[in-house]
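Lecture 7, part B: from sequences to assemblies.

Below are the input chains for today's worked example.
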Amino acid sequence: MFDQRVGTIKAKGWRYDLERYALRFALGGMVIVAIAFISIPIASLFLRIDLQDFLASLSDPAVIDALWLSLLTATASTAIVLAFGTPIAYLNAHNNYWGRAIVDTITDIPAVLPPAVAGLALLMAFGRRGVLGQYFHLFGIDIAFTTTAVVLAQVFVASPFYIRQARISFQSVDSQFEDAARTMGSSRLRTFSRISLPLASAGLLSGAIMAWARALGEFGATIMFAGNMPGKTQTMPLAIYTSLEGDLTPALSISIILVAISFGVILAVKFLGRRMPNAS
Amino acid sequence: MKNTKMIVAIAAVLVVAMVAVAAVSMNGGKSSAASTEVTVFAAASLSKAFTEIGEQYEAEHSGVKINFNFDGSANLKTQLVNGATADVFASADNKNMNLTQIAGLMDNSTVKTFVKNKVTVIIPSGNPAGITSLTDLTKSGLKIVIGDTTVPIGNYTRTILKNLDNSSSEFTDYEAKVMANVVSQESNVNNVVTKVALGEADAGFVYTTDAAGAGSNVSLISIPDEYNVIAVYPIGALLSTTHSAEAISFIEYVLSTEGQAILSKYGFITVI
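Predicted structure of the full complex, as structure tokens:
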């Protein structure tokens, strides 16, 4: 874009050329520094562990437990986020009611809230002496320190990632199709399930993947609200933190698994982004 | 048009970032010009006592600023072994100090025991689970929080459970029954205290010092000395320190009458 505009201008002497090359050189240098800053730390994880140790730790029960628990809880959280987030996203994409801005703001808050704050907030609400938790406790339901607490923490932090993306996807569906279906006598629900949902599906899926990835990486709220119990509440990020003892191998192995998953997530979202309507 | 706006926006962000960096570095420049900074890596259980010792020390030694990094001893050791810069390391056990020494990071001549500590059981105020003795911890359905095996308090807790288990018929299968009630294994003793003080857990195993710190939010069930573990806290200067005189002076202050008085105020057993 930069070159095209310059290309239309005839040479303006050496000074102009020098400035152009200096700028290019400076920008190039900044790009290289930025890329190196991100890629070198990630590559370092792979350089500090050999393949044999990595494969050996994959059969370590602690690593397996954490891996399964993480996949299970992140998938459960994503399902909950989809169930509750889709109606909100659809409503806010199509209707301009009083208070929409407030609903938007509330659903966005967890994305910017520090995880430790989210954990404390959940504990204050759902803990045994919490605002809501004290009533649950009367019925013998204790949430803190259970796998349910892990899922709640993940739903809390991951929901904005899906809701925001879903709203944008529903908004980008051409309303002509929806209007046409409605005038031909299709019910609201049928229009939603046959027109809006399929047309927005690529965007919804990429939002769901982002929410799943965020849930998988949840640490701060989990350790506070769900505690750290192998097999029950110790997800992969908690296992990394706990095994920062003499032997870094399990921590490095889990980190490498998470890097691989993150990479897959980015690729999937990029691929889906190309399939989205009105992709810019 | 769009591009111009973008460039202006990016430029604005860059300017703000530069101003912020400049402000921070000017600030840092000011404080380091005025004083020598001593970085102390200390076990989480020392946070309150050491913060006060640091304030006292700074008041008596103008030109020295003490910066603390409080965390679980195992995490601190890992940070040090992986190249974190510090002048003084105070661990809550000999194990992590020894590992740091084996890594060749400590100035061994400066490593000394400076304080001792014991383990106790804490229960939330109001005692919702009705725990009045150590045997009550075996009642099924309790929620007990302990330290993970990677932190000293976690190892001490398991040792105590074994000691009780082996002691008499009163504590048959004690370890298994208590461990069955454990709902979380924290990698930092402060997290155990918090969860009990909030009433989320029915009981927790912590140091007497942590119990003192939690004040009226918790009450104690003490563990007799014959089953208890007396924790030994070593302190020492790192070989890599660039101001060893200040580091050694701080260690001496911790071992002095004034330093020990502050430590005993926070529930530690003094060594002098």
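Note for the exam: Confidence is low (pLDDT under 50) at residues 28-33 of chain B. Keep this in mind when comparing with the next example.
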